User: Fold Origin recognition complex subunit 3 from Cnemophilus loriae.
Amino acid sequence: CEGIKNLMQKLMGQLMNCDIDVDSLEDEDYVPVSQNRIRCSMSSLISWYDSVTKKTDSETPSKKRNSSSRHWQSPPVVVIFKDMESFTTKVLQDFIVISSQHIHELPLVLVFGIATSPMIIHRLLPHSVSSLLCIELFQSLSCKEHLSTIIDKLLLTSRFPFKLGGKVLQVLINIFLYHDFSVQNFIKGFQLCIVEHFYSQPLSVLCCQPVDVKKRVYSLSHDQCENIRRLPSFRRYVEKQESEKQIELLTNDSFLKEETEKLLEDLHAYHENYVSILRCLHVFTSSLPKYPLGKQIRELHCACLENRVWETEDYESSLQLARMLNKTDLVTMLQQCVEILMSSSGKEFDKTVEKLKEFLTQFQNLEEASQERDVSVSSQKEVQKKTDLYHLQKTLLELKESRRSKKLTKFEMLRFEVVDYIDSLVRKYLVPADDRTLHEILYFNAATVLRGHLNAAPRTALHTALNNPHWYLKNQALKCDGGGISNKAPDICIVYKLHLECGRLINLVDWLEAFSTVVMAAEEPNADAASSDQVDDIIHARFIRAVSELELLGFIKPSKQKTDHVARLTWGGC
Assistant:
């Protein structure tokens, strides 16, 4: 906003025209039509606020308000300055001073978006202005917490049938963590996965809610049935069946549809069970020292998707650490697991919940045996009595042997039993999705395609465009085999291919002659001298422009070592 008038126009336009496109408001030149019909002043804003609050009061007659306190009871007008550092300081100061004079008539809340430090408020606003504000600081959630929420609501749920494969999810997370920290870009990447999956996978019609599976399966054509038979996971499934069932699956479409319906139902049930057990495992692993399987559930989810997590060294170390948990932590974790499984929609966890409750009961009724303590006390007394060196060594050796062969306490035995039971649940329910039949229908695994769309490689794309313009322009006249140079290519492409043949320093005169030779290859040899001189000037100008563009792109730079030479900056075809 260049001035206070411009600020008031935008403020009143956004308040009085709620259906205005948000993107259009970003344009400085955009002015809603209705703004021209009203006077953009504070009195007009107060009049609008009075009309709105009176309308609200009339709609809620049960709330009686007196006129003196009505404005304070009514909701305030909230104005958000998204980027305070880049906002015009003088305009902001004037707006605050003017608004403070009408605070009893127009309650106002200003929200300043600060990217640096809260101290910037006192640097931008003098004391006379900042003293008019009642400043309260608050901080938004970190982007990592927003990402965890999105993954929890979209991916770690059985509500949506579409799923991301382990490598695809890892690509999106890596771009988020190592490039931009943008939750919005993560969502766009997720949307791109959805579009790519439903566009490239012919059987994505079956990626639907479990209620619609039966209807869609039985409406499949013969070609779609053949697509199912070509799926790698389905072929592995057929190989494990008996010979008669194999023949039916490969020849009978009706039998195939019945089997497909059962397999998809099993796949949806697998999702429900997977998410619940994954959360239970995360309860155990998220509090272990050094977090062998990761602190965030997304890390554990990626590990379970990519391979059998129980075969990894990190999982083994996690089990060893879990077998050393104290009673309080173990009971708390079991209680959390019971809550997770009871809130799950999976039907297979009734016996699991009973087993976990049984463990909790055993922990509550557990009484520590005092035999070990008595043995240690008596041994210490025996050591204290005997001062002879021989007997002392003998007693210490006996103590060492007894500690080696001592029996586990009831608590230790129960703790081992709990950890082994959680391990059995992991091995049963956290099987990688790639091992499930028909996973290609619901899972998007084309990580290479996604990486090609999202991971920009500007140098490679630039080299391809300049070295082979046919790749982008699709013009057959530009296509040349054997690494030749077409005289119909753009000037910058010709100059670029010629510079690839040079060394560290490029002579501009020789470069110009080579460029002129390539360009004049299609000219008539019997052209007259006048036209030849004119063409040379044009070619010279074209060469200068192409070299300047190449310098702008960073391929060459002027050199002070030799006159009429430029230095080459890139090697190896970028």
Summary: The mean pLDDT is 83. Strands lie at 77-81, 108-112, 163-164, 443-444, 505-507, 556-558, 565-568. The chain has three domains: 1-21+75-140, 147-368+408-444, 458-524+532-568.
